[in-house]
Amino acid sequence: QHIWLCTQPTDMRRSFDGLSTQVRQHLGEDPSGGAWFVFINRRRTQLKILAYEAGGYCIWAKRLEQGQFALSTSASDKTPLTRTALLALLEGIDMEIKRQRKRYKRAA
Fold first, then answer.
1. Tens digits of per-residue pLDDT, 42-74?
2. Rounded distance, CA 31 to CA 22, Å?
Protein backbone atom coordinates (compact mmCIF):
# COMPACT_ATOMS: atom_id res chain seq x y z
CA GLN A 1 0.00 0.00 0.00
CA HIS A 2 1.43 3.36 -1.04
CA ILE A 3 1.13 6.50 1.07
CA TRP A 4 1.63 9.86 -0.63
CA LEU A 5 2.10 13.20 1.11
CA CYS A 6 0.87 16.19 -0.89
CA THR A 7 3.61 18.78 -0.30
CA GLN A 8 1.48 21.75 -1.38
CA PRO A 9 -0.84 23.31 1.26
CA THR A 10 -4.44 22.12 0.94
CA ASP A 11 -7.70 23.90 1.70
CA MET A 12 -9.20 21.83 4.51
CA ARG A 13 -12.74 22.75 3.45
CA ARG A 14 -12.27 20.20 0.66
CA SER A 15 -13.93 16.85 1.13
CA PHE A 16 -14.26 13.69 -0.96
CA ASP A 17 -14.73 15.27 -4.40
CA GLY A 18 -12.29 18.15 -3.90
CA LEU A 19 -9.51 15.97 -2.52
CA SER A 20 -9.95 13.26 -5.15
CA THR A 21 -9.82 15.95 -7.86
CA GLN A 22 -6.61 17.30 -6.32
CA VAL A 23 -5.11 13.80 -6.40
CA ARG A 24 -5.94 13.43 -10.11
CA GLN A 25 -4.98 16.91 -11.29
CA HIS A 26 -2.02 17.88 -9.09
CA LEU A 27 -0.52 14.57 -8.05
CA GLY A 28 -1.23 12.64 -11.25
CA GLU A 29 -2.52 9.61 -9.35
CA ASP A 30 -5.74 7.59 -9.37
CA PRO A 31 -7.49 8.29 -6.04
CA SER A 32 -9.35 4.96 -6.22
CA GLY A 33 -6.17 2.95 -6.77
CA GLY A 34 -5.75 1.89 -3.15
CA ALA A 35 -3.10 4.40 -2.06
CA TRP A 36 -3.53 6.79 0.86
CA PHE A 37 -3.14 10.52 0.22
CA VAL A 38 -2.13 12.85 3.06
CA PHE A 39 -2.98 16.56 2.90
CA ILE A 40 -1.93 19.34 5.29
CA ASN A 41 -3.15 22.94 5.46
CA ARG A 42 -0.95 26.04 5.08
CA ARG A 43 -0.66 26.61 8.85
CA ARG A 44 0.23 22.91 9.31
CA THR A 45 -2.38 22.49 12.04
CA GLN A 46 -4.83 20.25 10.14
CA LEU A 47 -4.34 17.01 8.26
CA LYS A 48 -6.62 14.82 6.17
CA ILE A 49 -6.02 11.38 4.72
CA LEU A 50 -8.04 10.30 1.68
CA ALA A 51 -8.27 6.57 1.00
CA TYR A 52 -10.41 4.38 -1.21
CA GLU A 53 -11.71 1.13 0.23
CA ALA A 54 -14.15 -1.37 -1.23
CA GLY A 55 -17.23 0.60 -2.16
CA GLY A 56 -16.10 4.17 -1.58
CA TYR A 57 -13.83 6.86 -0.24
CA CYS A 58 -12.82 7.38 3.40
CA ILE A 59 -11.45 10.54 5.00
CA TRP A 60 -9.59 10.63 8.29
CA ALA A 61 -8.94 14.09 9.76
CA LYS A 62 -6.86 15.49 12.62
CA ARG A 63 -6.75 19.07 13.95
CA LEU A 64 -4.02 19.99 16.41
CA GLU A 65 -4.90 21.98 19.51
CA GLN A 66 -1.26 23.06 19.84
CA GLY A 67 1.85 22.89 17.67
CA GLN A 68 2.28 22.05 13.99
CA PHE A 69 2.84 19.02 11.82
CA ALA A 70 6.51 18.64 10.89
CA LEU A 71 7.06 18.75 7.14
CA SER A 72 10.25 18.35 5.19
CA THR A 73 10.76 20.52 2.14
CA SER A 74 10.30 18.90 -1.25
CA ALA A 75 10.59 20.19 -4.79
CA SER A 76 7.87 17.87 -6.09
CA ASP A 77 4.10 18.00 -5.50
CA LYS A 78 4.13 14.67 -3.68
CA THR A 79 6.51 12.61 -1.64
CA PRO A 80 6.17 8.97 -0.56
CA LEU A 81 5.72 8.14 3.12
CA THR A 82 6.27 4.89 4.96
CA ARG A 83 3.77 3.82 7.60
CA THR A 84 6.39 4.65 10.23
CA ALA A 85 6.86 8.15 8.80
CA LEU A 86 3.08 8.70 8.73
CA LEU A 87 2.75 7.62 12.37
CA ALA A 88 5.68 9.88 13.30
CA LEU A 89 4.02 12.79 11.48
CA LEU A 90 0.76 12.19 13.37
CA GLU A 91 2.60 11.97 16.72
CA GLY A 92 4.59 15.17 16.15
CA ILE A 93 7.99 13.60 15.59
CA ASP A 94 10.19 15.48 13.15
CA MET A 95 11.95 12.69 11.24
CA GLU A 96 14.66 15.02 9.89
CA ILE A 97 15.88 16.16 13.30
CA LYS A 98 14.31 13.36 15.32
CA ARG A 99 12.60 15.45 17.94
CA GLN A 100 9.03 15.39 19.10
CA ARG A 101 7.01 18.56 18.67
CA LYS A 102 4.59 19.95 21.26
CA ARG A 103 1.16 18.38 21.55
CA TYR A 104 -1.85 19.38 23.57
CA LYS A 105 -2.28 17.47 26.82
CA ARG A 106 -5.50 17.56 28.77
CA ALA A 107 -5.09 18.64 32.39
CA ALA A 108 -5.83 15.83 34.82
1. 999 999 999 999 889 999 999 999 999 988 777
2. 9
Are β-strands 3-6 and 36-40 bridged in parallel, bridged antiparallel, or unpaired? parallel
HEC profile of the chain: CCEEEECCCCCCCCCHHHHHHHHHHHHCCCCCCCCEEEEECCCCCEEEEEEEECCEEEEEEEECCCCCCCCCCCCCCEEEECHHHHHHHHHCEECCCCEECCCCCCCC
Its pTM surpasses 0.70:
yes
* First CA to last CA distance, the chain: 39
